[in-house]
Input
Amino acid sequence: MFICLQRLEIIGCWELISLPDNLPKLEDLELYECDKLISLPCNLPRIRELRIEDCNGLLLYRMRFRVSRILTNLR
Output
């Protein structure tokens, strides 16, 4: 569905529960104030930057995604 998407920023989407799994070219993901978000895609092969703030439903220890060696920034 979003196979060419390279950057995604979501702010204040309080009802968002999950993101689509098919994001093969995503390099930069920013999530802010997504209280009901409980999961991230399992496979993000090109992710370089990942920023997550105030996403209280997301339990970091439950994330099981594979991140390639090109991740340059995790906040």
Observations:
- The longest strand covers residues 7-11.
- Residues 7-74 form one domain.
- DSSP finds no helices and six strands in the chain.
